[in-house]
Hints:
CATH topology of the domain at 15-96 and 209-272: Rossmann fold
CATH architecture of the domain at 15-96 and 209-272: 3-Layer(aba) Sandwich
Largest sheet: 6 strands, mixed
Order of helices and strands: EEEHEEHEHHHEHEHEEHH
Shape: globular
CATH class of the domain at 15-96 and 209-272: Alpha Beta
Distance between the termini: 25 Å
Radius of gyration: 18 Å
CATH superfamily of the domain at 15-96 and 209-272: P-loop containing nucleotide triphosphate hydrolases
Helix content: 25-40%
Structural class: alpha/beta
Amino acid sequence: MRRTTTLSAPSPVDGQGDEPTDPALQVHDVSVAFGGVRALDAVSLSVQAGQVTGLIGPNGAGKTTLFNVITGLQTPNAGRIVLRGRDITARTPVRRARMGMARTFQRLEVFGSLTALDNILAAAEFRRGWARDGSDPRRVADDILDRVGLREVAGERVDGLPTGLARLVELGRALATRPSLLLLDEPGSGLDGTESAALGELLVETSATGTAVLIVEHDVELVMRICSTVHVLDFGRLIASGAPSQVQRDPAVQAAYLGAEGGSTATGKGVT
């Protein structure tokens, strides 16, 4: 992926201008049950501004459910979500987006009949409508095309692109809203090794502008390389949190990935 432009940090919109030393996101004792199945069990974690934070765990651990709670698509049975010091547990997904939250999805969500450029341009237009900051949506979209490496396919319909490129369109669309909190659900799916490395660089650069990035990703090697903090879920419970090297050595994490106690560290691909 070729990137030549870095957008500035997001400007305050609908509550984004809170004390920067507070965590960008705080999850307090969140629980979700589907019938008799507890998908999340009293999960608490935080995400700092200016950092990439990882959320990993075996399949079915509750990662996407937690993303849905954070973004307002799933109502928790208990617990609170706090965005930049404000309790947003009762806020709608639309209101959360206007407060500076953006996400991508595990199952690709793009405007398939539109071009890559028009997908990103639509998001930039939406943001200008609520932010009223005088931004130029076309310039924003044009910058992001270079930033995520989509210049060569800008005029192609997204439903005709390979999955990896379509995921970059979805990422570009999220970036066009200039979020203070960016949640990415498996953004590296469908990317080759070179593209994955470039994605990692892009996310680190994005966090350096002050954006808080929370990433769920199957490529644990990528997560361990770019994240300052990693949280690990297993059967809906948070079993470990800390620096990547610390989490890799944690016996509970090793057991969760290997299905038995002890063994090698949780590295490599396809284990979340």
